[in-house]
Amino acid sequence: MAKQSVAEQFVDTLVRAGVKRLYGVVGDSLNPVVDAIRRNPAIDWIHVRHEETAAFAAGAEAQITGTLAACAGSCGPGNLHLINGLYDAHRSMAPVLALASQIPSSEIGLGYFQETHPDRLFVECSHYCELISSAEQMPRVLQSAIQHAIGRGGVGVVSLPGDVAGHDAPEKTKEQAMITSRPTVRPGDEEVEKLIEMIDRAERVTLFCGAGTAGAHAEVMEFAEKVKSPVGHALRGKEWIQYDNPYDVGMSGLLGYGAAYEATNECDLLILLGTDFPYTPFLPDDVQIVQVDVRPEHLGRRSKLDLAVWGDARETLRCLIPRVKTKTNRKFLDKMLKKHAEALEGVVKAYTRKVEKHTPIHPEYVASVLDEVADDDAVFTVDTGMCNVWAARYITPNGRRRIIGSFRHGSMANALPQAIGAQFVDRGRQVVSMSGDGGFSMLMGDFLTLVQYNLPVKVVLFNNSALGMVELEMLVAGLPSFGTTNHNPDFAAVARAAGAYGVRVEKPKQLEGALKDAFKHKGPALVDVVTDPNALSIPPKISADMVTGFALSASKIVLDGGVGKMVQMARSNLRNVPRP
Known about the structure:
By secondary structure, the protein is of the alpha/beta class. The protein has 24 helices and 21 strands. Mean pLDDT is 90; it is low at 536-561.
């Protein structure tokens, strides 16, 4: 019986950890691992055109499935390309294993061709990053990387020289037990008791929810009803908490809308639930604040806390719901619901005025129509910049849809690569990449990956021939726009030349039909929509100290238009408000 190589052992370990695909670009130092994948029917090699795409795709797959995904880059320049996508996965708490292959082990430290030091380079964007310098290390180091990625939520990196990968694996290597899922974390009794006391004492409680409320929708609604709390959310909490929510007061932050800002600043107890919300100017400094988070290092790093609670959002609420006193006074909740509806009514008018005749097409109109015609369980991947605005304000969550973007890392060019990873998980599920022309063109080469694998991703391209968010930054800073204009081709023609479905839309009346036709197409498709870059308006709450830094400029000037179906939801919630 032939001996197993280190590369074969590496691949077998990934398979045992539940990895079904390894995204990457082949290269000499990776050859032993890629060949081992070729011979293993339980895992596929996904050949992308750029390693950054590989990392983004793996991160998206991990976010969709909640399980480990993997990517790889060859030595030197190859694995360096992984770093941006790995930063994004790590900050999104997506469990990703990255293989950064290395030059021959005997040449490390001698300035060899393509030499870099991955075990140093990836430290900041991973929980674990180590070099395997001998065959004997491999099983334990790889297992440790996997368990760091799964257990802590984020990236584990293994650097493996190509020659070591080709060595024989040690005989009688024991197959170690392996974790493949994370436990729930119940808060301590002392913190639960203190929190119950604070809630019972407070007259006006507000919940502000983030991505940590995934899976806790029912508990959030039950708790909000019991304490008569408005429920606001951060951008990453939108998909988990906004739907079927009679206590919804919208979103706070850079792209905020509705009454979330008022609800968080006019309460006397604010509970930050499963959110590491980074924009401190939007948080109050004169009310009691409690933060509940599964990661203790997140507690108190954004605002001064009156109580820090280490625990899962769902488990914490399960501890509270049976024990907190039922509040009967709805005055604060009803006031916030009315403010929310009024705020949405105020901005929706700009969207409804003759947009069906406006050219270039209002981009918010595109997002609104997209929301209507997309599937109820579609996955939307969203480019950073203005597409974040469209997703935040127009894509309606329902508990089945997913919205994925580079919401923490803020990278350009993320939507198309993330759509690749999302689509490989389920070819039968509709995946829509909401791409800006700047982001799409940055990694446009991987549109060819869609064609090569016949992935039925639908790219909806918001094409304003500019880096729109950057122009807004310049405008806020009092600078003329410079270096932000894109001279674009006919992207639909490019898609057709690549072998995909492509259509260009320049008139609003063409839009709905073009989207429906593209969605009916069995393979990859691109809808190139020429949009208006000039419609601007001011969001609900702004102060001078909110307009510093990158995206805070988006709080100063955000795109004109309404908020899609959210105004209907707010009107519906007003039925619960007693008439005077």
